[in-house]
Amino acid sequence: MFRNFSAKLFSVLLAALIALFALSACSAGSAPAPSDGSGAASESVSTDGAEPAEADDSPFEISIMTRMGTAEAPLPNNPVITEIERISNTKLNIEWVPAAAYSEKINATIASNDYPMVMMLENGNKRGTVEVDAVRAGVFWKVGDYMPNFDNLKDLDPGTINNASIDGELWGMFRTRPIVRNGGYYRSDWAEKLGFGDPKNLDELTAMLRAFVNDDPDGNGIADTGGLAQEQSFDTLVPMLAQWYGIGQEWEIVDGIVRPAFENPEYINMLKYIKMLYDEGLMNRDFATTEATKRDEMMAGDYGVALVSIDKGDLSLVPLQQRYPDANFNVIVNFADSPHPVHGRSGFDGLYYSAKKAVPEEADFLRIMNWYNVMYSTEVNNLVYRGFEGEHYTKTGEDAVSISDEQNAKYILEVNPMEQLAMRFTKNIYKVDNLPYYNAQVEAFFAGKYTGQVDANPAFSWDSETFNEKGKDLETIYKDARIKFVTGVIDEAGWNSEIERYRASGGTEMIAEYQAAYEALK
Amino acid sequence: MGNKSLSAKLSQAVLIAVLFAVSVVMIIPILHVVASSFSSQAALIQSKFLLFPTDFSLDAYKYVFSTSTFMDGMKISLLITVAGTALKMLVTLMLAYALAHKDMPGRKIINYAVLITLVFSAGMIPNFITFTSYGLKNSLWALILPALIDPFNLIVIRSFIQEIPAEIEESAKIDGANDARILFSIIVPLSMATIATFSLFYAVVIWNSYFDAILYINEAKKFPVQVLLRQIILLSGSLGDSSGMGLDFYVPPRTVRMAVITAATAPILVVYPFLQKYFAKGVMLGSVKG
Hints:
heterodimer; A: 522 residues; alpha/beta; D-Maltodextrin-Binding Protein, domain 2; 5-stranded mixed sheet; 16 strands; B: 290 residues; mainly alpha
């Protein structure tokens, strides 16, 4: 009986081992195994860039590491990539790294000194330590020195260049993104019915919220509507209100003194306003446990106002109109009566860097710069944002397109992932007709509506050792305190003692370091 | 006597009620996920149902299977789970058997060498540099070979093997069996319950892993299914936040997320009933007589 059993077990183990060897055959490390006919697409590029390729006209091979922002990676024979390769005479070997662990992959790549020729480094609200350290260690080519020689790179927005710089120099090509995104949207059909227009000031917004909650805007005779749809993070709510109260974005400089925005005397008034919304039931009382993903569902008929990025309105509109075809939103960026500027963003999202180790020859780096030059052209940006005419969209005007369901399905697979390669944001990018809010904002932005009145986060490119060490923990202190104050767990004295705790836990050092950084760059 | 049995019955009833309540609390969310995956998006948004979709629809599954990404991921997951579990189990068993013997030379040092990894670990980047220097980059081996032995599993299996009466081994030795023969013909059959349990532990860990895959694998076609799942869940969160002016705020509908969760969890759940019988078996009954 034992023998029988062990024979069985052995055969299982044997089968498993065979499977293992089969596995090794199809994944043997560096062995180039061009599968699925895509030919050289999967061949590994010499990351040490050994062969200089100045003289000949053959496509220049560039290995790229970037983020995968979609569910699926593009296939190797993606038509958009092929077209970019054709226009720029390159051969692109793109490694799509899932967003779930992008920064870890970047850290590991930098630590192991095994660079692709071009790699994208992310930076959300703040420059990463790894990025700053690598730049200071002289790992990357300084693109700023070369930009004036390229047509599409020489006149980029100086404000964005400044934000994207480290120690006053530009080391990577940034991906330009909209500067104004904060704001919100509300149910315009409800507002119209109850006699409201765009809220011009905070009182009008409050009145609108009260009416949405109490005056049965959907006319079904049941009190089943809500005011503000809010999720646990105040990060999207605060900018809109802070604009009204004249509070800076995260940090502010008053008479040459750097201070965190929550030390602005108006900050507590803003929190009191949010607390009033909470106490009166003008926002969902379970906001503290509501995830951001819930918001679209809440706005699909039950709630009237969302204060988040303006372009989220287009996304929320789809489920809403599935339920109520006549429902609609209006977008607000800043209260018309507001004396204060809108909060702007850095103007870019991530930069592409080239490590000298992967691109040792200047001639090769110039070919990469040439590729950036192509990537910054309107032609290529329309390609990466919109795809091919006929296949992914139909032209309906000079700069306008519409996308059918069939085209959209193709768009999601073939074009959507390419957004990670989109380098430039210009008014000539085709507008999609079913994104009304977004287009309106883009138009307003390029019409100069917000020119000179954008107030950016001054600390974006400042360096602080304390922030790098425990900036996140410090943020948590005041962000948690905000929620506790709004829900009534702590009062104003409690809020102040939390701020004391913030200062005692390293906030004081961080403020001093920022002050020094501000003075050094002044 | 009657009283006692009544109170015993009562406590039994309370126990059952509590366990029932606990299992309901755990099962309902799972059932809701499954039900959601078979619903239309519109019905789900209005939260019309808890356990039975009011508007039955296979759209989510049609979408999931509309490209080969999901099935390719499943194949990779299956491959690394089966191969990885077999290899890990084999190595763990062999070491556990060796360490179960007190007369094994160098036993203490090996024991400590394994145990130390329970407490200390080098961290992601040293691991990454080490494993890529072995040529494991972009190889599925990178998802199997690191951490072949889980020290906790090893300790438990070792103690289990130690409890097998020495007489069994002695009798095999008298019959002329060598160590390998004793391990595979005697110890392994006696330990089937243990092996089944720990194989499951290994399998679930490999099946659920996505982080190593992102770190070590460069080509998207070699990603296990969990990477896709992770990516879809992230997309529904804040991923699109730094968007440009594209349509990049395409978010897979919630039904699709539920369908991917359901389809990606089903294979590993299916394994449980097949292993059930091993959990319940009394392995050592009657092995030593007289």
